[in-house]
Design goal:
This protein is 32% helix and 33% strand. It is an alpha+beta fold. The protein has a seven-stranded mixed β-sheet, sandwiched between helices. Helix 1 (11-18) crosses helix 3 (34-45).
Length: 179
């Protein structure tokens, strides 16, 4: 698994992934027109407080979008977001992608805290985040509106010292496919 910078040419992939009902509900990514997705990617590319990546299989096929958003380099905080192709969920790719992005946040960037927010009912995301070392800090009650219904969201975070204590290889220590 690898990450590659998201580019405007990836808009069609993101457009398809955003149209998935699970992504719309669990991630809060409702479908948008292809032109709106292109505009969003182009606008986000120029933002200095976010980094967007494609999640790639070892053969180079893109299977998702992961981002480190709301980066505050002074406070050392950021938020993580992940959206995977429906055909590639439940296979460990999300966990690998989260590990790679938090390695970037703590190993290359001056982050002290990385946060994630997801529905309290999103068992898959909560499992991925727990496996990556994220700690549940609390619940924001009735914080999300989807299809006319309010949902609670869990707030989870991983701190630099918790990341350093994780007993796993860092993404830069893992072999790269094709090498």
């Amino acid at each position: 698994m690898a990450l590659a910078p998201l580019d405007i040419d990836d808009a069609e992939l993101v457009h398809v992934w955003r149209a998935d009902p699970v992504a719309a509900h669990e991630v809060g990514m409702w479908p948008r027109s292809l032109s709106a997705v292109r505009e969003r990617i182009e606008r986000d590319r120029d933002e200095h407080d976010r980094d967007d990546f494609l999640v790639l299989l070892p053969d180079g096929r893109p299977i998702g979008h992961i981002a480190l958003t709301n980066q505050d380099l002074v406070d050392g905080t950021a938020e993580i977001m992940l959206m995977l192709d429906p055909d590639h969920r439940g296979q460990g790719h999300g966990a690998d992608a989260v590990d790679a992005l938090v390695d970037l946040a703590f190993g290359e960037l001056p982050m002290h805290r990385v946060q994630a927010v997801t529905h309290t009912t999103n068992a898959a995301a909560l499992g991925v985040l727990a496996r990556a070392g994220f700690v549940r800090e609390g619940v924001r009650r009735s914080a999300c509106l989807h299809r006319g219904r309010r949902y609670d969201v869990s707030v989870l975070a991983l701190l630099r010292d918790e990341w350093q204590a994780l007993a796993r290889p860092r993404s830069w220590d893992l072999p790269v496919a094709g090498q």
